[in-house]
Amino acid sequence: MSASLVDPRLQGRALKRVAFTTDQIRGRVRELGADISAAYPDGDLLVLGLLKGSFILVSDLVREISRPLQVDFLVVSSYGNDMVSSGTVRMVYDAQAVLKGKHILLVEDIVDSGRTLSMVITVLQEREPASIEVCALLDKHLSTFLEHPPRFVGFDAPNEFLVGYGLDHAENFRHLPYIASLQ
Ligand code: 5GP
Ligand code: MG
């Protein structure tokens, strides 16, 4: 998609390539919504987005899920402005919702080492939810930390640093409607 290389949203920054187009993402999110709707025939469902990276996915995904649900968010900080994992994960903002007895669907932008997810799942399990599953937009399949790999995955991600559709580099590029790798 060469048009993206002159995208005015980029402020002159060069992208290496578009990894997933807007149309590809839209189609896949629709499929994920159908899969998730079918996977939860009953019970209370709480969609719990990990901010900030999941904010666009959560808003698109919940509109494709055809069953009752509630939405809440957590803020977890793991990377700072670096393009490599620092290995430390911090809970910056905790969900207000009661988790006990509910089906929790954690929504994550991208699974890299899996550290973020395993930390969050450990914390949430203490609150006695009925179940915890993960929906990740992207999975790099590098995780050696995950007891429970994501049940719902948008795309297998290349081992490149990706931005757009919620994913940032130093807080930029989250608003790109496609997913691209940085130069
Ligand atoms: P993990 O804890 O699995 O190593 O890393 C997960 C978090 O690291 C993601 O939520 C995301 O914030 C960040 N991350 C990992 N890979 C990428 C990437 O390719 N691009 C961006 N923008 N963030 C990434
Ligand atoms: Mg980030």
Would you spell out the secondary-structure blueprint of this structure?
Elements: E1 15-20, H1 22-39, E2 45-51, H2 55-62, E3 70-77, E4 90-93, E5 103-111, H3 115-125, E6 131-139, E7 152-156, E8 162-163, E9 179-182
Parallel strand pairs: 2-3, 2-5, 5-6, 6-7
Antiparallel strand pairs: 1-9, 3-4, 8-9
Helix pairs in contact: 1-2
The chain binds guanosine-5'-monophosphate and magnesium ion (MG).
Magnesium ion (MG) binds at residues 53, 79, 168.
Folded structure, characterized:
By secondary structure, the protein is of the alpha/beta class. The protein is built from 3 helices and 9 strands. Helix 1 (22-39) packs across helix 2 (55-62). The longest helix is centred in the first third of the chain and has 18 residues, at 22-39. The two termini are 15 Å apart. 32% of the residues are buried. The structure holds guanosine-5'-monophosphate (5GP) and magnesium ion. Guanosine-5'-monophosphate binds next to strand 5, helix 3 and strand 8.
